[in-house]
Write a structure and sequence with these properties.
By secondary structure, the protein is of the alpha+beta class. The chain contains 19 helices and twelve strands. It has a single domain, classed as Cytochrome P450 (Cytochrome p450). Bound molecules: protoporphyrin IX containing FE.
Length: 418
């Protein structure tokens, strides 16, 4: 039996993250045992796991999908996923695929999300952002998550899929259900999660049927349903699975980055003022927001053979967990001031966007990274000049989750626009 790390931090327990990311735990692990065998928590009693907390190791694991499988026990196993039938369904999601299936599938869908394809969406996003801020600017106060942060990803996903934007609340509800399983306040059961997924599958099937009857070229929907690579198309089930991951992966993450970004900027008013004075700094600030407070806490892999990571012997079948907030705060990579939020970090580290691992790395590198960056840029370009002197009212209420550092509610005030 390999020796357990003497520092055990209950990293799989959603409660561990309720007051925010415990950076001090990760610092201890990086310094004392960067590849650390950890006990499971009650919430995830599926055996010990290796916590990966340094970037070189995270890169090694992420870039070797034949050794470290996303498929075997899924990249984000949840309670109940050990049922063979639901495992098989979950394995149809791109994020849970391994080579060679993963690469084939990714080639079919990736064209819809290139930087060029996303650039073409900017005017539409700007219109959305303007309308979102218009709705709150004169009020001088709002609940930021539901009225601002979640609106952009929902509008965008509806537009990409050719759905009327008044359906966006349906998606928001399903996402809350699928990601709210660990939060007792949301009292979501496993059945609720499955019903939410089925509801999204239903919407996807309607879309697919509509597209078949009346295909509209040049849309993301068309690229997904008609985009063949070497004669390969997505079949209906594959399309539905992809639709599910776009909603689950694209909405919660971007709304979290927007909410956490706003929170961090309000906590650093001098840096916020710099952005008011010089909005050209906003893309740099977004990169620092993504580094400083990444929305996803971790992803899982399963070792498919015995393998050494750093100085640890990992055995076939062992669980390996990649902790993104830890590697984004590694002193050896980002410097001694790594725990300080600094929108000017790119001045010292121009390559910051390729240094942090908020979007992962390797074969599963986030397919929506261009889209997410663009949504954040356009949104903050509208928020920063118009919601002036924003301040928190009370404490934000965090989602109870070991997977995403979501905020459920964040009330703010600002100078009403006249
Ligand atoms: C700030 C926002 C976002 C963050 C932090 C984020 C983060 C990530 C991470 C860390 C992965 C890698 C998972 C792994 O290695 O196991 C990933 C994969 C993925 N993301 Fe994102 N994501 C974001 C936004 C989006 C958006 C907007 C979309 C689409 C609309 C999206 C779609 C996907 C897909 C489809 C994958 C799976 C790719 C694959 O398996 O090849 N993400 N994301």
């Amino acid at each position: 039996m390999p020796e357990k790390c003497p520092f055990q931090f209950d990293l799989m327990n959603p409660v561990t993250y309720q007051k925010g990311i415990p950076f001090e735990y990760f610092k201890t692990l990086r310094e004392q045992c960067p590849v650390a065998l950890q006990d499971p928590s009650d919430a995830n009693s599926d055996g010990d796991f290796w916590a990966i907390t340094q970037r070189d190791d995270l890169d090694f694991v992420s870039k070797n999908p034949k050794i470290f499988s996303s498929r075997e026990k899924l990249s984000h196993p949840q309670n109940g996923d050990d049922d063979p039938e639901s495992m098989e369904i979950m394995r149809q999601l791109i994020i849970n695929m391994d080579p060679p299936d993963h690469i084939k599938y990714r080639r079919v869908v990736r064209n819809a999300f290139t930087s060029k394809a996303v650039d073409a969406l900017e005017p539409m996003m700007r219109e959305f952002a303007k309308n979102i801020v218009d709705k709150v600017a004169a009020k001088g106060e709002c609940e930021f998550v539901s009225t601002v942060a979640e609106e952009m990803p929902l509008f965008v996903i509806c537009a990409l899929m050719g759905l009327p934007s008044d359906q966006r609340q349906r998606f928001a509800d399903q996402v809350d259900i699928m990601l709210g399983m660990d939060d007792p306040e949301l009292s979501v059961s496993q059945e609720d999660g499955q019903t939410a997924a089925a509801e999204l599958f239903g919407i996807a099937m309607e879309l697919s049927a509509k597209h078949e009857a009346d295909p509209k070229e040049g849309t993301v929907l068309h690229a997904l349903l008609s985009g063949a690579v070497e004669g390969e198309h997505l079949n209906e089930f594959e399309f539905c699975s992809f639709f599910l991951i776009l909603i689950a992966g694209g909405v919660e993450t971007t709304r979290t980055a927007t909410s956490q970004g706003m929170r961090v900027l309000m906590e650093h008013p001098e840096q916020l003022q710099m952005l008011v004075d010089d909005p050209s700094l906003i893309p740099d600030a977004i990169e620092e927001i993504l580094r400083f407070y990444p929305p996803f806490i971790h992803m899982h892999r399963t070792a498919m053979e015995d393998v050494k990571v750093s100085d640890k012997e990992i055995k076939k079948g062992d669980k390996v967990v990649l902790f993104y907030p830890s590697v984004n705060h590694e002193e050896a990579v980002f410097g001694e001031d790594v725990d300080q939020f600094d929108i000017l970090r790119t001045k010292r580290m121009p390559d910051l966007k390729n240094q942090h691992r908020t979007f992962g790395i390797g074969q599963h590198f986030c397919l929506g990274s261009h889209l997410a960056r663009k949504e954040l840029k356009v949104m903050f370009e509208e928020i920063i000049p118009r919601l002036r002197n924003p301040k928190l009212v009370g404490e934000p209420r965090n989602l109870m989750s070991n997977f995403v550092v979501g905020i459920k509610e964040m009330h703010i005030t600002f100078d009403p626009e006249v």
